[in-house]
Amino acid sequence: MTHDLDQIRKDISSTDQQLLQLLSNRRQLALAVADAKLAQNKPIRDQKREQELLVSLIEKGKSLDLDAQYITKIYHVIIEDSVLQQQAKVQGQLNGANGPVARVAFLGRQGSYSYWATQKYFTRRAETLIEIGCDSFNEIVQSVETGHADYAVLPIENTSSGSINEVYDLLQHTRLSIVGELTHPIEHCLLGITGTELSKIKTICAHPQVIAQCSQYLQGLSSVKIEYCDASSDAFNRVRQAQDPTVVAIGGEEGGKLYGLEVLGRSLANQKDNVSRFIVVARKAIQVDKAIPAKTTFIMYTGQQPGALVDALSVLKQHGISMGKLESRPIPGNPWEEMFYVDVYANLNDYAMTRALDELNRITRFVKVLGCYPSEDISPTLPPQS
């Protein structure tokens, strides 16, 4: 049998085009499902139905020589996209937020991690995205507070370097509300101009958070100068302008390509699964539809009396509210006193959440709700264990 490579590649391209069309068709059907679920007062996500679908697909895949792991991995992505598309549509209808244009402020310029997170989040929500790159977190927040931007995208924590304290401190004082969140996988690469040799590197340009996330890799380098940058896009630009093979940047591969840089090394982060969580803030708070899993974020000051924090957290337990995160930050001007940031899996309009906040207001010195927003923690559906 003669194998014509060119013909095989044409057949692959044709198959890929068919797959793209089918994926588009499936996404449109998923959006239609959202309307049907709302009309029947059903939650957006039905994991029992997802599991049944996955089991059926795995069984059918066996006869097509497709293994279960392959099918499961593909449908994790498809199901996550379907859920997030449905949630975005429902929220847009409820809040009138999905307009043709969104002005969004983020850290850095094209190619920064915040830039890609912004693209990822707003692709589902606006036809036109007006990008407003900023040099600092404070500038980002001010852009929205003054009306120059409609939204801001802010990184708030990372699996390698932990919480981004500067963002937490800004939330304490801003009038903005958290209206959304997303997680974004981060793969740090070493990038330089053509002809760069690893053994001759003298300077590495990167954002401080990137440096923290790659600290173990950097400890293994001797006689290398670290230059701190405002964003990964700033680091890329410095390397491009320097045109010096001894100067490199750490950042994302996609971003580096925008600046004509080549990958010299991959997977530099301290942890293999390096993921950043971003929040989206706006001037006006939103409501979250009951069909969508919600998160509420608030800050509280319990005072320094013994057991104060335990008493506050017990209120959440008594009302059956699950806590996703507890973060403490010092209160400026009050030495050794701390404010607590709390993420809970609850809708602000739920009766249990309303009662819990009422009790917290009575037993703490200060409570401020920072926002209620759709949860984008889309846990993967797995086939049942035999």
From TrEMBL:
TM helices/strands, residue ranges: none
Pfam families recorded: CM_2 (PF01817), PDT (PF00800)
GO MF term set: chorismate mutase activity
Cellular compartment(s): Cytoplasm
SMART domains attached to this UniProt entry: CM_2
EC number(s) on file: 4.2.1.51, 5.4.99.5
Key words of the record: Amino-acid biosynthesis, Aromatic amino acid biosynthesis, Cytoplasm, Isomerase, Lyase, Multifunctional enzyme, Phenylalanine biosynthesis
Domain Chorismate mutase: 1-90
Prephenate dehydratase domain: residues covered: 103-283
Catalytic activity annotation: chorismate = prephenate; prephenate + H(+) = 3-phenylpyruvate + CO2 + H2O
Functional pathway: Metabolic intermediate biosynthesis; prephenate biosynthesis; prephenate from chorismate: step 1/1; Amino-acid biosynthesis; L-phenylalanine biosynthesis; phenylpyruvate from prephenate: step 1/1
Function according to Swiss-Prot or TrEMBL: Catalyzes the Claisen rearrangement of chorismate to prephenate and the decarboxylation/dehydration of prephenate to phenylpyruvate.
Protein name according to UniProt: Bifunctional chorismate mutase/prephenate dehydratase
Naturally occurring in which organism (per UniProt): Rheinheimera marina
